[in-house]
UniProtKB/TrEMBL annotation:
The lineage of its organism: Bacteria, Pseudomonadati, Pseudomonadota, Alphaproteobacteria, Hyphomicrobiales. One of its GO terms (molecular function) is ligase activity. It is found in: Membrane. The chain crosses the membrane at residues 16-35, 55-71, 83-101, 107-125, 132-154, 202-232, 244-266, 333-355, 375-393. Residues 206-349 form the O-antigen ligase-related domain. This is Ligase.
Amino acid sequence: MSSIRYRRAQAEAERAARWAGALTRLSLILISFLLNGDFHPDLLPGGEGSNFQQYLGLTLWVTIIVATLYLPPLRQMEGSFGIYANWAFYTIAIASAAWSANVESSMMKSAAMLIVLAGAWRLTLTFPWEELLACVQHGLFSICLFSTLMAIFVPSIGVMSDYLHAGQWSGLFASKQTLGFCSDMLLYLSTFRLMNDRRNRYSWIGVALAILCLIGSGSRGSGVLAVAAVLATYAMRKWRALGCILAFVPFILTLIGALLISYLLYTQNRFVVIGGAWLDFTQRTYIWQHALRFFWDAPWFGFGVNGFWTQRNVKDLFLERYQWFLDNYHSGYIAILMETGLVGYILFAIAGLCFALRMNRLVRGRALPERQTSFAIIFACLLYIIDFTETYFMRSTNLRTTMLAIVTALAFSRPLLPSPCRGAGDLDQRRKVPPLRLRRGLASASEWM
């Protein structure tokens, strides 16, 4: 009798896991479609300023959190200094709403950030890696497909008409830059998957569609970054040592960001002088300098998430000086400094160093499949480069921010030995994973990362 009950319970658990897996896949595809940037106002129920995408996206993340409770764990988080540094940074960011000048707005962003981070980490620990990438690819593919159709058949929405970007595609989005970023991510993901299966027709179509959208949106920078990411991934498979070097790029970029901020604070310039040339990066340095003028008002813990640009005096002063306004730092590094202060920036830098040491350990010890380590390193490098002129680090729901949390969780977790019901073949495969090894000076430092 007990064996019958056991088999019945096991069958019910397997059925629940199948439904949970299907629901998680669907939710992740929709998230990858919805949470990349603001859609064109004419496509949103509430028009311009609507939070429809964010609310629907958060509902999907809650769905994923609940659904993954019915999935068997595949990975387990390892207690280490590196993971504690990441938790400390995100804790500061989420808690910063408490000292924000605009508590209501900051609390909403903090709550959204907490939900998305919890969902991303649950997803990493319970969902197969290859399926995760496939779902993200499906969402981005849908974006580029519908954006192409919109640009061709509904140009009043899909094509920009302002004097700066007239004739360039924006597709489903309010800005052509967002379509460019989605296209470069689709190009990288599709090419990444083709490296293992060149007969994958879907990925070949994805590459063609991404290139078409990159050309239509005029996003040359995004295209160059995507091609560089593909070449770096290919090179990492040939030379493992390259992965160990590239793992330190995010940390180095964080230090360069700190130097740039120090330069702007010291000189009070609205531009960067390089070789006698005055660079303002399409007036982004105006935004940076305006924000940094207020740095000493809250140097240690910052103004809180969503607590700086929402201040009336900050906005009015910028409008008075430049006659235009964007509530966006256009630099992820300055966003971290202004919203979490020096304490947050230092924790962010420490987390980046721990990530580098951890990835070195994984690459040298072959403790993760090569595809996973290469994707984690290259994606982190891409996001850290992009955040010099865009703001993704402190976004609460954006897909790129979520993917950074996912690769971080991947780096600081380890595969679990499967339960007997998953099959002896899987158990033998997991037991063949070699132990982590390091040589020379990095060994002692990375043991506790």
